[in-house]
Design brief:
- The protein is α/β, with parallel strands linked by helices.
- The protein folds into two domains: about 10-30 and about 165-200; about 45-160, Immunoglobulin-like (Sandwich).
- It is about 30% helix and about 20% strand.
- It has four helices and eight strands.
- Strands 2-1-4-6 form a four-stranded mixed sheet, with no helix packed on it.
- β1 and β2 (about 50) form a beta hairpin.
- α1 runs antiparallel to α3 (about 165-190).
- It is elongated and about 80 Å long.
Length: about 200
């Protein structure tokens, strides 16, 4: 006779469990690699808004000129982590080049005109101080703090809790494992743990 209708092969049983577990692990890895995006406005009041922001490693900051006056985003070369890449609108590698090249209205010189943006992804933990070249003298300065887990922008109220990427990854993995256990339990209850058993074997 053929295989008992209540039997289920051990191979199918194990493949199901392995597939669910792998899916949970893959989702956890993807979650851990996603970086958040934060926006800083550059205004006609000659300020970065917010002028201080705390983010996580791998996050990206986008500076946008929301007024009619152009600005630059220029890091202080001596006030960023030693291992970090220098950053400046216009793509300059050192502060002196950024300062000497800047020309109002010329995007290639580092000017970010109305409606345009500049972005930079921060990989190294630490404090980054930056400024706007044409408005440095009036105090248009900003700070990016890169710390594990990051933080929300200070809005005057209590900061919302943040969950580290590692914890998110663990949660997704554990959830996948829990689903796998439920699936295995279902198989046991439905088939009575009778895998690979045939009527011929019973005879």
């Amino acid at each position: 006779m053929g295989q008992n209708s209540n039997g289920v092969s051990r191979r199918l049983f194990l493949q199901t469990a392995a597939g669910i577990g792998a899916a949970g692990g893959s989702a956890g890895t993807a979650a851990a690699q996603d970086g958040a995006t934060h926006t800083v406005d550059m205004t006609d009041n000659l300020v970065f808004d917010p002028d201080s922001i705390t983010i996580a490693p791998g996050d990206t900051v986008i500076w946008e000129t929301v007024g009619t006056i152009g600005h630059s985003v220029t890091a202080y070369e001596d006030e960023i982590p030693e291992e970090a890449d220098y950053f400046a609108s216009g793509g300059f590698d050192v502060e002196s080049d950024a300062r000497s090249a800047y020309s109002a209205g010329d995007p290639e010189s580092g000017d970010v005109p109305q409606g345009e943006t500049y972005r930079h992804t921060f990989e190294v933990e630490g404090t980054y101080e930056y400024f706007c070249i044409p408005h440095e003298s009036v105090g248009m300065l900003g700070t990016v703090e890169v710390t594990p887990g990051g933080a929300t922008t200070d809005t005057g109220g209590p900061a919302a809790p943040t969950v580290p990427d590692a914890a998110k990854s663990l949660l997704v993995t554990v959830t996948g494992a829990f689903v796998a256990v439920l699936s295995l339990t279902y198989v046991f209850l439905k088939y009575g743990g009778d895998y690979g058993t045939t009527n011929e074997d019973e005879g």
